[in-house]
Amino acid sequence: MSMTDSAGTQADAPQIDSQAAYRDELVKAGLLIPTGVDGLYGRSGVFEDVVERFDALVTVWGGTDGAEVMRFPPALNRRHFEESEYLKSFPHLAGTIHSFKGDERAHRTLLRRLEEGQDWTEEQAATDVVMTPAACYPVYPTVAARGALPEDGRLIDVFSYCFRHEPSLDPARMQMFRMREYIRVGTPEQVMEFREVWLRRGREMMASLGVPLEIDVANDPFFGRGGAVLSNSQREQKLKFELLIPITSESRPTACLSFNYHQDHFGHLWDIRTADGGVAHTACVGFGMERVALALFRHHGFDTARWPAPVRAVLWG
Amino acid sequence: MQRDVWPTDAGTTNAGLAMTIPLPSDESLAEDIRAVLAECGGLAVDPGRLAPEDDLYAAGLTSHGCVGLMLGLEERFEVEFPETLLNRRTFESIAAIRDAVRGLLVRSAA
């Protein structure tokens, strides 16, 4: 899945001002710890507490469905990344991990260039590891490797830091952020039912947190003119919905949850088969952990002890 | 194939080019489109067996297949699809593609 509303690419000056202002407020309050890179932050204990409580709330709503829990580090096998065709759709967002592969002579060159403030990355070569762009990416090849699906398909629960190269002043558009996801793999009927259930649950769950929200059709930020075909197609077929909450703008609310139906795209890519031999369909619901936390801080204030009692009850019991 | 010249101002400008070469026929366009479909469309069936009005999505054309198809058509006809045409309807059948390509050929010749 991917929560990547198009607002960021069209942000006008007032929008950017309000994003930078909110980021500065968060930093001043100590909730975010700056690193000097836009979109890369440390989080305070208070921020992490909210993320952890929201993570637990997701489990309250989805935990009894019997999902298999998988936790991956925020990196993928490069071969799986290549097979995912991510580079076809989002070459501009991908983060590949490179490492020094040179000899001693190359090492001396590296150090000299570093000292001189020159580009030292020439001898860096791609490793077998790529940053995870969305928490569900390690799941598809894993499920595929197990062979045909059981009758009732599979339901997987993942949670991971993700990386997307899109430096921004918007605190809700981080380069490294966490995503919790449930992924359904099965027949078209099983997968569509899953998404319908989560569209309803997502709305109820977020309403219980006292934030204004709407759900709307959305598209991923596919790259280039070919990407425009994919974006329009995704919207026309209503394959992606987002649950939007205003964070830095009322008129351009931020996607905090997304509900994605991939049809048989991943099923084809990895040859995932249903019990009766058909190509599996997949869908996922994703929860943008930082975005939800930021939305809560925006609407209820920076002091969680003073959040409305009903919201506190939902999160802290 | 070469882009055909469609004169709208014959005799006034481009005198050397302004010949009355007609746009390709429906048949000829459809054949070229079938060739691009065979090469780039990733269909489950042989495009040669598709009627002009047949639903290409029902024949296995995917969204990602559309991207390859669009790029293949642009290369073959030396046109560029504008943003307004980058949707599913444009590529839903050989006839729909033919109409879109014809419109682009007319526009680029004008």
Please name the fourth-level CATH homologous superfamily of the largest domain in chain A: Bira Bifunctional Protein, Domain 2
CATH class of chain B: Mainly Alpha
* CATH architect. name of the largest domain in chain A: 2-Layer Sandwich
Instruction: Round the mean pLDDT of chain B to the nearest integer and report it.
Output: 83
Helix-strand string of chain A: HHEEHEEHHEHEHEEHEHEEHEHH
Structure classification of chain B: mainly alpha
Termini separation of chain A (Å)?
Answer: 30 Å
Number of strands of chain B: 0
The CATH topology name of the largest domain in chain A reads BirA Bifunctional Protein, domain 2
* Distinct helical segment count of chain A: 12
CATH homologous superfamily grouping of chain B: ACP-like
CATH third-tier fold name of chain B: Non-ribosomal Peptide Synthetase Peptidyl Carrier Protein, Chain A
Q: What coarse outline of chain B follows from CA principal-axis ratios?
A: globular
- Supply Rg of chain A: 21 Å
Uncertain runs of chain B are 1-18
**DSSP strand (E) fraction of chain A?**
15-25%
Residues in helices of chain B, as a percent range: 40-55%
Largest interface (C-beta under 8 Å): A-B, 15 and 13 residues
Would you kindly provide a brief summary of this structure?
The complex is a heterodimer of chains A (317) and B (110). Chain A is an alpha+beta fold.
Notes on the structure:
The complex is a heterodimer of chains A (317) and B (110). Chain A is an alpha+beta fold. Chain A has 12 helices and 12 strands. Chain A has helices spanning 7-10, 13-28, 45-62, 78-83, 86-89, 104-116, 139-145, 188-207, 224-236, 265-270, 289-300, 309-316; strands at 32-34, 41-43, 68-69, 75-77, 96-100, 124-131, 154-163, 176-186, 214-217, 240-245, 254-263, 281-288. In chain A, the strands form 3 sheets. Chain A has a 7-stranded mixed β-sheet. In chain A, strands 4-6-5 form a 3-stranded antiparallel β-sheet. A two-stranded antiparallel ribbon of chain A has the order 1-2. With 110 residues, chain B is mainly alpha-helical. In chain B, 43% of the residues lie in helices and 0% in strands. Chain B has helices at residues 26-41, 63-77, 94-109. Chain B has a single domain (26-109), classed as ACP-like (Non-ribosomal Peptide Synthetase Peptidyl Carrier Protein, Chain A, Orthogonal Bundle), CATH 1.10.1200. The A-B interface holds A 85, 88, 225-230, 232-234, 236-237, 263, 265 and B 62-64, 66-67, 70-71, 81, 83, 86-88, 91.
